[in-house]
Amino acid sequence: MSCTIMVYTGATMAMAKRAHAKSARAKHVRRSVTLPPKIARQVETLARQRALSDNRVLVELIEQGIEAQRQKEKAFFQLAERFRAASDPEQVKQLGDQLGRFVFGSLDRERINTAARRLNADAADVLKYQSEE
Q1: Which of 21, 59, 100, 124 is most buried, most CB within 10 Å of its CB?
Q2: What is the pLDDT of residue 35?
Q3: Burial 6-38, CB ≥16 within 10 A → b, else e
Q4: Cβ–Cβ contacts within 10 Å for residue 2, how many?
């Protein structure tokens, strides 16, 4: 069994002319979201605990998720830049390992190590090329 909850975020709804001033603030998009029962119960529980509607809780969770994704992307690019700028082989290895974990997350250790070895090999090639110039 699943539960469908409506979420509103971002498009204009039809309004009377006298309410035109409010329409600039009242832009929403109607979305139908089907949630697994466990998630629906969690949303309902959060809504009750915080005295909010299910819809408001969903909007806040989505906003938090988007912000978390932006922060993760920013952290990734900062790490990649540190990796690119590193010249010490030990630091390159460490940053390569961190990048591998970042990209592959909690996947099995062998896949992470394989990706890290590839990144480290690529970094070693770059360092070798730079030293030859």
Answers
A1: 100
A2: 92
A3: ebbeeeeeeeeeeeeeeeeeeeeeeeebebeee
A4: 11
What is d(CA 85, CA 77) in angstroms, rounded to the nearest whole number?
12
With a cut of 70, say whether residue 54 has pLDDT above it: yes
Residue where the block lists tokens 């460490």: 94
DSSP 29-94: -EEEEEE-HHHHHHHHHHHHHHT--HHHHHHHHHHHHHHHHHHHHHHHHHHHHHHHH--SHHHHHH
Whole-number Å distance between alpha carbons of 109 and 115: 10
pLDDT at 67 over 90: yes
In the chain, what is the greatest distance between 2 CA atoms, to the nearest angstrom?
73
Taking the CA atoms of residue 15, residue 20, residue 25 and residue 28 in that order, the dihedral angle to the nearest 10 degrees is 20
pLDDT of residue 93: 83
Per-residue CA distances from 25 to 10, 20, 21, 123 (Å):
10, 9, 8, 50
Note the pTM of the prediction, 2 decimals.
0.55
**CA atoms in the 13 A half-sphere facing the CB of 59:** 14
